[in-house]
Design a protein that fits this description.
The chain is 36% helix and 17% strand. It contains 14 helices and 13 strands. α6 packs across α7, α7 packs parallel to α8 and α9 crosses α11. The protein is elongated, with a radius of gyration of 22 Å. The chain starts with 15 loop residues before the first strand and ends in a 9-residue tail after the last helix. The relative contact order is 0.16.
Length: 391
Amino acid sequence: MVSPDTPSDLSPPGHVLIAPDRFPGSLTAPEVARHLAAGLRRVRPDVPLVELPVADGGDGTAEAAVASGWRRVEVKVCGPTGLPVTACLALNDGTAVVELAEASGERRLPGGRPQPLTATSLGTGQLVAHAVRLGARRIVLAVGGGACADGGAGLVQGLGGRLLDALGKDLPPGGAALRSLHAIDLRGMPDLSNVEVILTGGPAGPLLGRDGAASVAGRRAGAGREEIRALDAGLRRWADLAEAAARTAVRDRPGAGAAGGVGFAALAFLGARVEDGTALMLDLLGFADRARGARLVVTGEGSLDARTLRGRSTVGVARAAARARVPAVAVADRRGLTGEQLRRARIQAVYALADIEPDADRRVRQAGPLLEQLTVAIADEWLPRRRPRRS
């Protein structure tokens, strides 16, 4: 445990707000929150608890919204390889959270086998279309954890657009096929002029080039050098025709390369704007209201390291807690931040699974019980028992 600051000897009144992100590979954000709550209830049964799983606008965002009370809507859509999958979106008072990973994510790949040249974002477009049919007027498009590098061409197809080759036939799915793109027909797409689309999911570069979608998403999906060249050539052709059709130039804008280029299509065809995912989600989930009157916020994620400082949810939660004048501590599988870095991030202390279980595989298998074990130290150091009054 790293603790830059020392808690007070007396525990003030108020609740504990449990607001963690997921532990990738072991627990979802709601599962992390449940285990932390179970542990704290055992050691401090008199302390009120409020569970508010959070997300940074990427993978797990829809699930976090549902856990906070949003309506869960399940839709059968096309997965990244063309097989049908049942995906969910979250809906609340005219706002929908549409998560790319739900429809077109790595976890939807059969057997986990990547298909970088042919994987499609079609299902994500179908989810967006369904949200619009349900009356959503604001769509948060969370684009972490994607399995495709198709520049969002599938997104456009899922919304009713057609991508045609020189013979007028529909292109097959995937980024490589875009090399044969000849025309884009947008007549089947719905009117989205009154729909606000917000793109979230962490920083991303341009659509093309060394830091573009083909290089980043393709390499992550296991594409070799020649496959990356094929993808980049397809995305370049797609960018030329898509920008002409949408009458805009967005290929070099921040966020265009997000999720294999899905960000590009959202910017070009949906008029999306890019926002910090953590700040947006904390606002949508009502974090400020739930932190009011709290004595402690417990947040965390799988790994606290340099990436955490670049916009991950743990830092966003800690800084929001500081604005509410509530101390925040974090749990993690492991940590790689110094005490000074933690202070700057407004994290008062870190409790890591690696401190009590050195075996990494066991930490994945037993993450839930180990988190419950960590709550003993959290309670001892931040939730001291109330001193009995003297008569």
